[in-house]
Amino acid sequence: MPDMTAPLTFEQDRYVAKIHGGGWVHKNVWHSFEILGDLDREALLAGLDAFVRRHDAMRVELLPDLDAPVEQRDVPVADDEQVAGCQHVTAASTEQFSRYASVVLSRDCLEPWSGGQRPFRFRLLRYDDRHHALLATFQQVVFDGRAHEVFARELWRDYAAILRGDSPPTTASSFLAAARQQRATVASARTLADWRDRLEFAAANRWRPPAGTTPTDNGVLTVEFPAEAVAALRAQCAERRCSLQQWVIGAFARATAAAAGRRRLTLWTTMDTRPSRDRDMVGMFAGSSPLALDDLHHDLPHVVTRVRGQLLTALRHQGMTAADIASVAPDVPAAGAGEEIHVHLRSFSGDHRDTGDSGPLRITAAAYPLRRIVIGQTSALHLDCYDYPDHLRLRLRYRGDVVGRPLAQSILDAVAADMPDRQLTRIS
Fold this sequence. Notes:
Elements (H helix, E strand, L loop, with lengths): L4 E3 L2 H11 L8 E8 L4 H14 L5 E4 L7 E4 L9 E5 L5 H17 L9 E9 L2 E8 L6 H19 L11 H8 L6 H16 L14 E7 L1 H14 L3 H17 L4 E8 L13 E8 L6 H17 L5 H7 L12 E7 L7 E4 L2 E5 L15 E8 L2 E8 L6 H13 L8 E2 L1
Parallel strand pairs: 5-6, 9-11, 11-14
Antiparallel strand pairs: 1-4, 2-7, 2-13, 3-4, 6-7, 8-15, 8-16, 9-10, 12-13, 14-15
């Protein structure tokens, strides 16, 4: 009989410590789709069912309980179990239907994981035969950013297969098996020392507002790089033997250091420790790690080389529990609000546009915005990088009291100026 249990991954352990330690507020990962056209509801429900049965992360429960989990167990789906709820919504207009979908999604995003529940919730709302909303939320402790992208891609792939009369895949790489393999190792002395060095560097190089900073409200700035600009950038990265995301981090670190009159900065970025052969595994393998960056006054190729080295070091030494991290630098004080800089990297294999046609359907992703939920801005700067095959979007969130809009704008302008074909960028 296969082993149905596994320890938490390192990243799950650190996430749980942050949630229960008061460092983070609980919120779930979410997807929403507006679906217009002749939807085959049974085919869509079958696609959702196939996703849950295929990916064991969707079937886990935490043990011994949700408040102090140390391991997880696969609870198989019963033959007659319904993984999604369906509801006909009586609404006076499509606008009222959309508002209702947003309210329901917002509530589900904040719902904690209760004992006996699955770590997801699927709702298919019907306005009429040609207008539906699919709302999906997932408990973040078992579902990271990579899983978010995999879900959308596999769901619509399986829906199309079922309509053709084909069966969707029934197996996928096991999250629990990967967790057991990951936790078979313990942090080495070298890993502990590396984390201590980077945490001490971070404490000495936290964000400090430069002289003349103009306080403003918190805000968000976005820069878009269309297909031609992305192609030129990928060609340049190939010549310099770096990835596009390494270039983004390097350009952002260099621009931020120049704006602040600094040569050294710490950036916290998300590291994904999935095995390279299992990039589409659903689960939780994403954890934040500090990059200790110096010599940021040099040219961009030099900075990108430094970034690449730090990323490889961070990935090599990512295997740390929350207790391990707390033990290596007990004298380093925790960062205060507005003292850290974060970079969040996301790669997508599909189209960057939210709305697309799939046969007789017109599907719009992220169609229902969250209502009355405000995501607090704790870091000084937070750069979200959305990397598509033919598009790049950078979204910079800034804290107004320690950065301000003028300084944030100058940083994003400098990043855009490092593009090989700047005239093709769009900044808002």
